[in-house]
Structures are given as C-alpha cells and as structure tokens.
Amino acid sequence: MARILITSALPYINGVKHLGNLAGSMLPADVYARFQRLGGHEVLYICATDEHGTPAELAASEAGMDVRAYCDEQHEIQQRSGEGFSLSYDYFGRTSNPETARLTQHFADVLEDKGLIEEVLEHQIFSIDDDRFLPDRYVEGTCPHCGFERARGDQCDSCGRLLEPTDLIEPYSKVSGSKNLEVRGTKHLHLMQTKMADRIRTWADAASGWPSLAKSIAYKWLDEGLRDRAITRDLKWGVPVARNGAPREGFENKVFYVWFDAPIGYLGATAEWAALNNADWESWWRTDKGADDVTYVQFMGKDNVAFHTVSFPATILGSEEPWKTVDKLKAFNWLTWYGGKFSTSEQRGVFMDKALEIMPGDYWRWYLTANAPEGSDSAFTWEHFQSVINKDLADVLGNYVNRVLRFNKSRFEAVVPAGGTWGENEDWLAAEMNVRLEAAAANFEAMEFRKAAAEVRGLWALGNEYLTRAEPWTKFKTDPEGAAVGVRTALNFMAIMAIVAQPIIPVSARTILDALSIPDGNRNWPKGDAKAMLTALPVGLSVEPPEVLFKKIEEDDIAAWTERFGGAEQG
Ligand SMILES: Nc1ncnc2c1ncn2[C@@H]1O[C@H](COP(=O)(O)OP(=O)(O)OP(=O)(O)O)[C@@H](O)[C@H]1O
Ligand SMILES: [Zn+2]
Fold it and tell me: Which residues are close to ligand 2, an ion, with C-beta < 5 A?
C-alpha cells in the first residue's frame, strides 16, 4: 500500500469557479484520488480556497461586504459546489485560517535566517486622503500607451500592457477616488530568488515525474533568470508580517503577498485536516517525520506551473528543512468556451453552480474527463457535450444496464439466474476484459485521463459486444440455459463496468453497484482471475433495475442552454 498526497491548485475566492477551473485542477485530482483509493492505497486529497490578495478585497468591496464575511460566504459556495460535483477532498481548507498564517510566518523567519529575505526600500504611491499606501490594483489612471482612462496600476485592460502604478497619468485612488497622491518610500520584504536559481535548477533537473509541458515552463523561467520579488504588500487582509513571533517593526500595515502564502496553504490545510482528525500532518509533509514514503502529486492549469516548479520550491528548498516536494505534476492546457476564454471577470462560460442546475455532476465529470484539455486546448460546445453524453452515457452504458436488468426481471424474476455453462463467448469476454482492465489502470496511473476514459468506455462497449455474441434475448425460447449463462455473465460484467467507472462517474456507478447489491468491500479495482470475477455474483441474488440512469440531452435543451448561457456567438 502506497501513501499518496494529492493537491489541486487552490481555487481563488473571488466568485464561483467555471468549468475550466474544474477541468484543469480539481476534477482530475479527484479522479486520480478515487482511482488510487480503489487500488487500496492511503490517499490524502487536500484543497483549499485561496483567499488573500487585492482581487478578494476588491470583489468584497464591490459586493459591499467586509472581506472576511465575503470570503466566508464564497468559501461556503465553493464547498457546496464541490460536493455537487462529488469532489472527494479529504479536506477543503482556507488559506485565511490560522495554520497557514503560522506556517507562512515560519517560512519567512527561516528564509530570513538563511539570508534569503531582505528589507528593500520601495517607492510607492501613498494616498493622503486614505492615509495608506496603495498597492498596484488600488491605483487607476490613464494608460501612458493607449490613453485608456481606467487602466489599473498593474496592467491596462485596454492595450494589455503591464504597468507600474507610477506610469499612470492622472492617477487616482480606487479606494476613495482621491487624486491627492504622492510617491513615498516604504520598506518591503523581498525573497532573493536569484540566490536560489542554481538550487532550483538542480532540483528540476532531477525531477522525473513532470510532463514535458511542466519541464519546459520551469526551464523557460529559469533561463530567463529569476528575479528577487516582494513578498509583502500594503494591505490589511492577509497574513500579518511577523519576525520571530512578534509584529515586525515598520510592517504593522503590511501583510504577506498572496503568491507567497497561497501554496503554503497546502501545508496549512493539511494541518487543519490533521487537527480535526486526530492525525499527524507532518507525517505527510516532513521527510524526517514519516513522509519519505509519500508520493506527492500536484494538479493545475498551465498558468500555475511556474509557481509550483519555481516559486513555491524557492520557499521550500530555501528553508533547508526536510519538507516534501512535488514528485508528480500534472498540468493542463485550457478548456475553452467555443474556442474563446472562459472568464470569471466577464462571467463568460458555464459556472459550477449553474452547471449543476441543468445536469447532474456525473454528466459534467464524464464530459470533462473524456475531453480533458490534456495534450492541447479542448473546446467546450453544447453540441459536443450533447453528443458525448448521449452516446457514451445514455447509449453505451445506460442502455446496457437497462436492457440487461429489465430482461432479467421479466424472464428470471430479478434474481441472478442459475443454469447453463461457461462457454466460448465467456472465454472471449474474459480475455478481452483482462486486456482492457490493464490498459485502463495503466492510463489512470499515468494520469492520461482522456485515454483512461476511452478505456472505460471500451469496457462498456465490450459489454454490448458480449450481448451481441451471447444473444440471451433470442436464445431464451430455444435454449433457456444458454440465455441464463448469458444474463448471469452480463450481470457480473455490469459490476466490472460500474467499478471501473467509479473514479469518473461515482454517483451513477454507485447506483449500478447498489442495484447489483455489491457490498462496499467488493468495489475495489478489479484484480485477479477473470473467470472468478465474471462468476462472482451469487445465484439467486436479487438485482433490481434502477430508475433511468441517464437522461438524453435533447435539441430543446441545447436551445434553452444556448439562450441562457450563450454559445457560438461568444467564441
Ligand atoms: N480554462 C481553463 N482550463 C483549464 N484550467 C484552467 C482554466 N482556467 C483556469 N484554470 C486553472 O484552474 C485553477 C484554479 O484557477 P483560479 O481559481 O486561480 O482561477 P483563474 O486561473 O484566475 O481563472 P479565471 O481567470 O478564468 O478566473 C488553476 O490551476 C488554473 O490554472
Ligand atoms: Zn493601455
């Protein structure tokens, strides 16, 4: 039994997540966690909302709420939609919780002790009327490049150029609108990443569990040269800046910058989980405290790769403490909305809460796994969604389950029938099943999710092929014994079809396994002798057809959803 620590990129707190966020981080991590649990491994799947930073403060003020109250509410919403999609986090924490604050302050102390953090005098915009320094997004003004009048201090939304707040013409405070601003000197803490470049490169060279996409992003950053970077900001919302347990002098109105504390949230959330479960979190994270046998797997979209292969490692490796670093990393390309961008700020695309209003979580899970933006970007369209769901779930899997269970009910009194003998059709099924089970397991293990889904679908299709060969329907009148062995084998194989579907569509798989009265202890990944697996159900066991498993998506649905969410015209 292996110990596997899994984290998915932390969803940011400023609103409900869209299907792209789900497909590129939380869902694949969940599918992988579920697969590994089925293999009998000890899995810890940790996630948390990433709550600090200016976008959270600004979203709160737009909502007219106190930032903590806003984050409380948004965390709840994300927690609930995670449940709606059956995301099986062992713990869904928050970076605003005390454990993350404590660990952030710890890392800052240790890094400073190692000479990797320095105080640097920066020149920043101070708002006299607001009596505070304004971090970049709190200053707006006219873009010096294109003349756009509401350019932000970090970037112009009109021409896309990156800006410094001092570049803006006629700057004003986003807090009060005041133009009574001046440039003042103020001290910030900088993480001296330049001093870490060689160590990170050596560490990246040695990494074997990263795909080429992740390696190339890490090397691009390293080749372009790391820069020393501020890890503090002039905000109230965030982890207070401390030194050796006391507030740091001159930093009373500053907090740590979100990019520094967010990944520490993985550790903080694990510590929260442990406190609630009477467990030892360091046995998952510290190689000197039992974590040397842990395999740590991270999931994220491609824009987060550099943070996980360079920035966060700078913190971890810089501490020279025996923390676990990532072993396997899975990065995704973009799920697009009709070829364009899903966007939280522009509310473009389908968001997790709304998605659940129109279709159950399993439908989305299947679609987004079978079409994961893995080797390249992948475009969501309503038409594609309809065709995938109707074919794979309704026609291939749903139809098999309904046909076999209904026939069994009408002809064999809804119990696993006796009679007949194992023959060449069953030999054929057993041999094919072995090959496909192995391929499916290998692809789940390799985190090749499209291929894993294709193999699961292949197993479902195999069931239908077996029915075509065994023909229990036609045999029933002339050869009832032959029909009995066909139905009995088809019922046994149905259990296999559902067991392997559990990582991707856990709710539907459970419905099928419950209908077959498979005990919880027998739902692990199928291993061993194929004939034994295909004859496992006791004769006489009662098996009832479930209610309709999958509902087909109709043209009317597509029309209604396009009307409600938009579609092709927004691409
Ligand atoms: N369209 C997408 N396809 C795949 N993954 C995505 C997509 N958009 C974001 N992600 C990933 O989702 C995870 C969580 O993202 P986060 O909550 O930070 O939102 P984000 O990246 O700011 O997205 P947006 O800007 O669209 O709100 C990250 O790992 C990110 O890379
Ligand atoms: Zn501009």
Answer: 143, 145-146, 148, 156, 158-159
